[in-house]
Design a protein that fits this description.
By secondary structure, the chain is mainly α. The chain has eleven helices and no strands. Helix 8 (165-176) crosses helix 10 (192-209) and helix 9 crosses helix 10. It starts with 8 loop residues before the first helix and ends with a helix. Mean pLDDT is 81; it is low at 3-7 and 105-115.
Amino acid sequence: MFSPAANPDVFDAMPDDQLMLAYAGGDTSAFDALYARHESALLRFVRRLLGMRLAAEADEVFQETWMRIVAARDSFSPRGAAWRIWAFTIAHNLAMDRLRASGREVAFYAHDEDGDGLEAAQLFSRGLLRDGASIGDAVHPSAEELAFWRAAGRRLLACLDELPDDQRAAFLLHHEDGFTVEAMAAALDISFETVRSRLRYGLKKLRGCMERYLSVLGQRRLSNELDA
């Protein structure tokens, strides 16, 4: 539906809020810049929130998100919420509506929509490890290390599919898309403690699901300390 054009240099340094206001004022190139800047992250969020069971609906929810953004251009106000939080909240609400309407049942899927799992592995290392290694630590990772992180990333995506929808959404918004607990509470109109509870229980379940990989990383850290 949307096909971003080449962005003028003037838009590169403009904050999202200003781009949205410029678009509301009639500058369609500002919308192209917003779309190009956030297309990948929004689509990835929708896909991971819907999971494999509703994977066929991800593109439709993604397009509907942008349609809502376009329709609301005249009412957007940066005083309410930053554009990115506002946009991701629209995507979150649309995806959650689909999940509720589908009667989604939890199931295990060893999937990897990114092809090699390395992008998901970055999410794995940020979200599940309080400290320790990540794929980004090695300048030239070995074939064995790459294979390990690909498998870890694929496993994480499968573990995410097993989480309750609200816990999966909280994990993705916080650990992948950088939402603070305060921002999530305000955007989703729930209490601070409810958000913290969803994150806490979601992380606990993910760590249990990822136990084998966390154990291997713990052994690697110990080995590195002994070798040092």
